Amino acid sequence: MVPFISRSALSVTGPAAGLTSIVLLKVQRLGGIPPFLTALIIAGLLQLILGVIKAGRFAALVPSAVIKGMLAAIIAAVALVMLMGWKYTPMGKSTLVSPALIVVVMASVMASLFSSTPALALTSAQFVDVPLGGVMSLWSALPRPDFGAVANVDVWVAGGTIAIVASIETLLSLQAVDRLDPLKRFSPPDRELLAQGTANAVAGFLGGLPLTAVIVRGGANVSAGGRQRFSSFVHGLLLLVAVIFAGPLLNLIPLACLAAVLIQVGLNLCKPALFTGQVKLGLTQLLPFLFTIVAVLATDLLLGVVIGIFVGIAFVFFENSKRAVVSTRDGDGVLQMRFRRDGTFVSKPGIVTALDNIEDGDRVVIDGRDEYIDHDVKEVLATFQEDAKQRNIHVTIRGIDLSTARAGGGH
């Protein structure tokens, strides 16, 4: 469903790990899965509204370093020798055989061989578990939404929570996958919200989990050579066919080998060049990047990204507080102070410092043309202009209207 509505060529949709804790909490709080499914339908409808009002544009507010940090944080650690070394073997040039498939087959065979030895046999909890019995068995196993729960305020709160979290995770994943796209295409975020909202509303009717665009799936799609939306549709179709007709085979797959596949995809997302590139960009890019990695690994995807955003905002404030004005002396000895960026409360400390360094009896031209100067800074300038009379400083102000600014109000 999503590929037909979305315009993202490579993003792949599915249940997201970042929503796991929310799903568990809401199911417990609402008293079961049926009222939760009603909340999921509400979440889908809210996402549709977000798409219609074009709320997806706000994804651009997320700093680049946060996106890269999020990419690098999706990793773990289980036996990857075969997956990582595959490209160095003669089979590495083949596009028909996937190393992930070979790993899954080999792990399943090994688990089967060890099953006869109690000391080595895996438990049932360590294997994939899908319903058996075909379409009707799967259909009967699915829960149904409780539409009577629509009157429950908690259901609406749960729906709103899922809509916000799923939308944020989808938009972040969308940007991340676009960065991986070898063709460098742009995916419209509002269209993606419409697609995800539709999918979540339908998932609620069918007894499914909340869905988002997922970075690991999108990264696997890119690595496998996917270039168009049809690959995402085939992904979903093959999953459905596999669950319905190949349940017994799927239940032979150890979860550990699937974890290894995810780790290998994650390692591909955080190549050393990604880290060296951030180092070259300086601390203002490197630190938000590192904070995001640590926060994602220590908490979860959503909270980690939020922490990364706040760190990024802090560095924006720090950068804007420095050198808002540039001071140079012309040939006549006049100090020329020019605003090189907007003068706001953030840059106020630096402006005050620059003004305090002006010597008594100096001649000063303060030029704020073509820049926005907020009221706080205007009051600082009005105070300086008033004090300049006592210090025999001759002040000329250009491009800044101080008629409404009160001297002394900026301190």
Quick rundown:
By secondary structure, the protein is of the alpha/beta class. The chain contains 18 helices and 6 strands. The termini are far apart.
Q: How would you characterize this protein structure?
A:
This protein has 411 residues and is of the alpha/beta class. It contains 18 helices and six strands. The chain has helices at residues 2-5, 20-30, 33-52, 64-73, 81-85, 99-114, 134-141, 153-180, 189-206, 215-223, 230-245, 247-250, 255-269, 272-281, 283-298, 301-320, 348-356, 375-390; strands spanning 12-15, 211-214, 325-329, 335-339, 363-367, 394-398. The strands form two sheets. A four-stranded mixed β-sheet has the order 3-4-5-6, covered by helices on one side. Strands 1-2 form a two-stranded antiparallel ribbon. α18 links the parallel β5 and β6. α4 (64-73) runs antiparallel to α16 (301-320) and α17 (348-356) runs parallel beside α18 (375-390). The termini are far apart. The mean pLDDT is 81.
List the helices and strands and how they pair.
Layout lengths: L1 H4 L6 E4 L4 H11 L2 H20 L11 H10 L7 H5 L13 H16 L19 H8 L11 H28 L8 H18 L4 E4 H9 L6 H16 L1 H4 L4 H15 L2 H10 L1 H16 L2 H20 L4 E5 L5 E5 L8 H9 L6 E5 L7 H16 L3 E5 L13
Give the strand order, joined by hyphens, for the main sheet. Answer: 3-4-5-6
Q: Categorize the overall geometry.
A: elongated
Distance between the termini: 59 Å
What is the share of helical residues?
Answer: 55-70%
Radius of gyration: 29 Å
Low-pLDDT residue intervals, each spanning 5 or more residues = none
Query: Number of DSSP strands?
Result: 6
For the sheet with most strands, the description reads: 4 strands, mixed
Briefly note the structural class of the backbone: alpha/beta
Query: SSE order in H/E notation?
Result: HEHHHHHHHHEHHHHHHHEEHEHE
Summed over residues and divided by their number, the pLDDT gives a mean of: 81
Percent strand equals: 5-15%
- Helical segment count: 18
